[in-house]
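[AMINO ACID CHAIN]
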Amino acid sequence: MLEIGHAPGNALFGKYEIGRLLGCGAFAKVYHARNLRTGLSVAVKVINKKKLPSLTMMSNVKREISIMSRLNHPYIVKLYEVLATKTKIYVVMEFVKGGELFAKVAKGRFTEDLSRKYFQQLISAVGYCHSRGIFHRDLKPENLLLDDNGNLKVSDFGLSAVTDQIRADGMLHTLCGTPAYVAPEILSKKGYDGAKVDVWSCGVILFVMNAGYLPFNDPNLMAMYRKIYSGEFRCPKWMSSDMKRFISRLLDTNPVTRISLDEILKDPWFRKGYKEPKFHEEQPKDDAQASSSKLNAFDLISFSSGLNLSGLLDESHDYGERFILRESPEKLVEKVEQLGKGERMKVKKKKQWGVELEGKEGISGVAIEVYQLTDELVVVETKRTGSDAQWYKELWNNKLRPALVGN
């Protein structure tokens, strides 16, 4: 039975009328629902925290929520809000009526023009993600949905990587993806470029749409991996020479020479009938390149009650505060350091504008992070790091808050 929020009747949190089951997995179910106020159809992913098999899976759930919160693109499934109870997380998303692209292509291969249309929409969405430092890493027809108008929507960001997961060598190192769509460099386990991996998967998807079958397939998994690694595939006879040439550039086993997204956008086969979608951009285009001390759109959203993820995945909250001040980050950090030294606490600097204060024998502590909101405003976040809650409350009420806020 679906656990609902504390509200009268059958409505989830008094907001959503839950309908039929759309799909289910090991730890999550997706339901059709209706917003009682607006009448809008939505999809609600219900995640059972107790069934999450590992901390890694919890991390994937949190990552998917945080990534989807950053994205606003016509060919990407929209996240509306996140709700939670003690045992469940409810992810309220755009309802995409047309189902999976996989189901449609399973009924018969697409024409070259239709394949190109969906591929253009896919590249538009993928390029948007890459420009924000997000790499999907599990692109496949099952993760591509179709709306009422026959337009494509990218979903399922559970395996996505963001730029802060890139190691010092500039590469990602997590082994992930679906076997038939995985790039050869992932199999080598030597690190890979997330953008080039997504381009490879897009190439496999394009091949499947027009051919009606996979370019690399074998009942023996290792044999299939060998074909992927060596780039061993054949295009069907009905595929045009221009499309064959284009696919060979997408499925180049060498990521260095593989076609890039910028080159895709200039390719004559791709450009036929291409129109870049126009939509309202809700965050600055250079957001992904912003300094780590600056807040991006998701950070701002997460400070609001609707999408504060701080307590969604943990049974208990660390005691903490978050507030906005008109003060320089340097001045605030200096105040915290002076307070810590005056109280004879161990002072440890973190990142650019972060400080940790450690009290008696390590059982009491507090971490302070300062984020630049605008040129004049900052967000200050304090969090208890030790087990002594009473110590934290007394420090916060009597010394830390007056030192920072001035009252």
